[in-house]
């Protein structure tokens, strides 16, 4: 970013939002990255010459995306209410989830991913089990009985949540002593020993499906973004600790796609890119003595 005085940094010269520039100095914009590369790495006396700007922009964005997937520790959070449909629509820049939590009674409760199938697509069938079709010759679909059972709370669960416990928090029993419901406490599978709601992520549908105990509750999704800010290039930024790496990434990507470039030049560019990525990861590791000290203090705890 361009250098600004402290008044503009702290107050944005009184223009709303006044906090626009807070924390911005640690980042460099996508526009500056492309401009700097064309100025410093592209020319008659450089390995890269007369490269189109749109190609540099493409490789820069791909490099930033790879950094978000692999190295960045900048996790986004989104809080939404889960209503009776028991669905949480994934944000537009969602790539992968880090943690899904229930926020209840001012407490964050991490949820576990359900290993059971909780949602399915159902085709409309005739009495002879053949499919029915619409005017465009596509199979008619309907809400599956699996989804209906999950939403009305009748779906049996292998998890120790409220749906599998009675009012006294004990597993319910049938008349037959040995015919117990799923979720008995004795001999319980510790993988499924969780009283909180459970979820499954349908990436194709772009939603998180919850069981019935999550209805009308607050959900917090912590997730990894691709860093593209919804396609607005003016908002895409990169931490300055990765600036040298992104230049090396662009240089390697351009040379690797060119015809007639010697292999040793491509290998050297690849090694530079790998080394700079490793250095940047070490810089962002945030291994501080104070954090290590707080963790090590637990070793003096007495166990009864």
Strand content: 15-25%
Rounded Rg: 27 Å
Give a count of the beta strands, DSSP E runs of length 2 or more: 12
The profile of the biggest β sheet is:
4 strands, antiparallel
Structural class designation: alpha+beta
What's the average pLDDT? 84
Enumerate how many helices there are, as a single number.
7
Q: Give, in spatial order, the strands making up the sheet with the most strands.
A: 2-11-4-5
> For the terminal residues, how far apart are their CA atoms?
56 Å
- Determine the fraction of residues in helical runs and give it as a percent range: 25-40%
Low-confidence stretches: 173-183
* Principal-axis shape: extended
What is the N-to-C succession of helices and strands?
HEHHEEEEEEEHEEEEHHH
Structurally, the number of domains stands at 2
């Amino acid at each position: 970013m361009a250098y600004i005085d402290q008044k503009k940094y702290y107050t944005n010269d009184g223009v709303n939002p006044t906090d626009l520039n807070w924390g911005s100095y640690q980042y460099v914009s996508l526009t500056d990255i492309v401009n700097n590369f064309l100025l410093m790495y592209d020319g008659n006396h450089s390995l890269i010459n007369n490269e189109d700007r749109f190609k540099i922009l493409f490789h820069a964005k791909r490099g930033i995306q790879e950094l978000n997937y692999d190295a960045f520790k900048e996790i986004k959070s989104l809080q939404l209410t889960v209503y009776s449909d028991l669905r949480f629509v994934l944000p537009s820049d969602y790539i992968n989830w880090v943690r899904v939590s229930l926020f209840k009674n001012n407490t964050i409760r991490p949820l576990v991913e359900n290993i059971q199938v909780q949602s399915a697509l159902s085709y409309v069938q005739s009495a002879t089990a053949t499919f029915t079709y619409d005017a465009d010759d596509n199979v008619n679909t309907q809400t599956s009985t699996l989804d209906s059972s999950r939403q009305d709370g009748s779906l049996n669960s292998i998890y120790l949540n409220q749906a599998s416990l009675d009012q006294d928090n004990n597993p319910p029993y049938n008349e037959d002593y040995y015919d117990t419901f799923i979720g008995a406490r004795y001999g319980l599978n510790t993988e499924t020993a969780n009283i909180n709601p459970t979820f499954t992520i349908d990436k194709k549908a772009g939603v998180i499906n919850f069981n019935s105990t999550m209805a009308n509750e607050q959900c917090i999704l912590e997730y990894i973004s691709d860093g593209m800010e919804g396609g607005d290039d003016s908002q895409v930024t990169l931490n300055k600790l990765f600036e040298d790496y992104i230049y090396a990434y662009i240089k390697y990507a351009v040379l690797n796609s060119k015809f007639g470039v010697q292999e040793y030049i491509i290998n050297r560019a690849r090694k530079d890119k790998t080394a700079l990525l490793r250095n940047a990861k070490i810089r962002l590791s945030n291994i501080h003595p104070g954090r290590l000290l707080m963790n090590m203090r637990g070793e003096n705890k007495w166990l009864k």
